[in-house]
């Protein structure tokens, strides 16, 4: 990776990470994706006693089409079971197709199950921490949440499933949404320092625009 792209990508990566301290909570809420390390991390948190049950939320998205033999949520739940999480401590929401949908449909699922957790641990990929929490705060403001992700450094993130190009495209798209979603009522306002936005603009200019929303401004 050219050094100028690396610097911009690392700047955006660092911005998305919130480094919040974990506390015991009522529910682990896992926003599923193509990254099974998130499922493994969530299962570890459960086994360490951070919450009494886990909700896995996610259908099949553009990135995961054909990747798993079932929905993202079902695949992640299977990983948790294999790691020792009891089946009666797992809830599956397998219809959501975006972050807002994850929250809305999980809220409906928990209501149907007569569960009313007050404090959540949101579990997500590192570069999606900030937008996940901002979306939760807007759409479920009566609850308390913190967000966490597998402790993976940017230099170690890419694997056989997710390339650095994939990660950078999503990071850039999420930053666009962080900037413009609050006015649409989709998330809470976030301060974006000028160097972070300049890094975003640089990455867009060199072609990392696959995850940008055509409905939002690019700059």
Automatic annotation (TrEMBL):
<dbReference type="InterPro" id="IPR014729">
    <property type="entry name" value="Rossmann-like_a/b/a_fold"/>
</dbReference>
<dbReference type="GO" id="GO:0005886">
    <property type="term" value="C:plasma membrane"/>
</dbReference>
<dbReference type="Pfam" id="PF02698">
    <property type="entry name" value="DUF218"/>
</dbReference>
<protein>
    <recommendedName>
        <fullName>DUF218 domain-containing protein</fullName>
    </recommendedName>
</protein>
<dbReference type="InterPro" id="IPR003848">
    <property type="entry name" value="DUF218"/>
</dbReference>
<feature type="domain" description="DUF218">
    <location>
        <begin position="37"/>
        <end position="142"/>
    </location>
</feature>
<dbReference type="InterPro" id="IPR051599">
    <property type="entry name" value="Cell_Envelope_Assoc"/>
</dbReference>
């Amino acid at each position: 990776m050219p050094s100028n792209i690396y610097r911009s990508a690392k700047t955006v990566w660092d911005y998305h990470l919130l480094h919040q301290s974990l506390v015991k909570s009522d529910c682990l809420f896992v926003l599923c994706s193509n990254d099974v390390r998130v499922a493994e991390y969530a299962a570890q948190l459960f086994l360490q006693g951070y919450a009494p049950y886990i909700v896995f939320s996610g259908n099949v998205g553009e990135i995961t089409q054909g990747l798993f033999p079932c929905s993202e949520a079902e695949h992640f739940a299977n990983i948790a079971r294999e790691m020792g999480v009891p089946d009666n401590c797992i809830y599956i929401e397998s219809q959501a197709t975006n972050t807002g949908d994850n929250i809305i449909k999980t809220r409906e699922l928990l209501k149907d199950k007569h569960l009313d957790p007050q404090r959540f641990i949101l579990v997500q990929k590192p570069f999606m921490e900030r937008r996940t929490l901002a979306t939760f705060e807007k759409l479920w403001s009566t609850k308390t949440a913190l967000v966490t992700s597998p402790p993976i450094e940017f230099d170690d993130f890419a694997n056989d499933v997710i390339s650095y190009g994939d990660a950078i495209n999503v990071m850039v798209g999420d930053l666009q949404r962080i900037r413009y979603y609050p006015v649409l009522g989709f998330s809470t306002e976030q301060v974006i320092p000028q160097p972070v936005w300049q890094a975003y603009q640089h990455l867009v200019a060199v072609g990392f625009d696959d995850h940008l929303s055509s409905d939002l401004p690019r700059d």
